Amino acid sequence: MDFILREWRRSDAADVAKYADNEKIARNLRDVFPYPYTLKDAKEFIDDCLEEDDFLMFRAIEVDGHAVGSIALCRDDGMYRPRAELGYWLAEDFWGKGIMTEAVRRICKEGFARWDDLLRIYAEPYARNAGSRRVLEKAGFTLEGILRRNVFIWGEVCDSCMYALLREDMSPAGD
Ligand SMILES: CC(C)(COP(=O)(O)OP(=O)(O)OC[C@H]1O[C@@H](n2cnc3c(N)ncnc32)[C@H](O)[C@@H]1OP(=O)(O)O)[C@@H](O)C(=O)NCCC(=O)NCCS
């Protein structure tokens, strides 16, 4: 399905409040992700995305003129500066159409191109999040390990996974 990755706009707030307000999304993200998700939450999120910061790359996923998801790279600093964390969510109406796999490929390509000293992009889905794990595998990430009993989220202790894509895992064409 066709989509574009683009920078956030304040006018996206109503779409974000509509699509992010979903327990199935919140259950798979960090506990800082609100549920219920209000218009105020959406406005604050977009304000954060619009702040100038050379260590962050926030993108809206746009389908037919609407912001239906989010994908981001957040670089770590100090001794961890070779790496960036990848995070994402997509509106449930658009699941299963290949959008996030392609969005992950595109933002990784853009991240490695923008930051010469970025060597590693990683993501930490919960072990039970089969859809997200499949996205990462399809996008070329390697499962490096399962972190057993690593988090307490939504009232349960969960394992989480460490997936990573290294710069050298990308083909010379950046695919
Ligand atoms: C995870 C998420 C981003 C996937 O986005 P998407 O655009 O539907 O992903 P894609 O269509 O590119 O690929 C999904 C793959 O997972 C598979 N999948 C989905 N649910 C699955 C499940 N329960 N068990 C096994 N495979 C599953 C799909 O079949 C597909 O694989 P295939 O192409 O081999 O058939 C989306 O479901 C989402 O936003 N979930 C809630 C938030 C979230 O989990 N964010 C990630 C946190 S780490």
Q: Would you tell me the structural class of the helices and strands?
A: alpha+beta
Poorly predicted spans? none
Number of helices: 5
Shape category: globular
What is the correct CATH architecture? 3-Layer(aba) Sandwich
Largest sheet strand order: 1-2-3-4-5-7-6
As for the CATH topology, it is: Aminopeptidase
Could you estimate the helical fraction of the residues in percent? 25-40%
Number of domains: 1
3D structure, described in words:
With 175 residues, the chain is α+β, with helices and mostly antiparallel strands. It has one domain (4-169): Gcn5-related N-acetyltransferase (GNAT) (Aminopeptidase, 3-Layer(aba) Sandwich). It has 5 helices and 7 strands, in the order E-H-H-H-E-E-E-H-E-H-E-E. The protein has helices spanning 13-20, 23-26, 39-50, 99-114, 130-138; strands spanning 4-6, 56-63, 66-75, 83-90, 120-123, 142-153, 156-166. Helix 1 (13-20) packs across helix 3. The mean pLDDT is 96. It binds coenzyme A (COA). The site of coenzyme A has 21 residues, from strand 4, helix 4 and helix 5.
Provide the fold topology.
Layout: E1 4-6, H1 13-20, H2 23-26, H3 39-50, E2 56-63, E3 66-75, E4 83-90, H4 99-114, E5 120-123, H5 130-138, E6 142-153, E7 156-166
Parallel strand pairs: 4-5
Antiparallel strand pairs: 1-2, 2-3, 3-4, 5-7, 6-7
Helix pairs in contact: 1-3
Bound molecules: coenzyme A.
Q: Which characteristics define this entry?
A:
5 helices; single chain; Aminopeptidase; alpha+beta; binds coenzyme A; globular; 175 residues
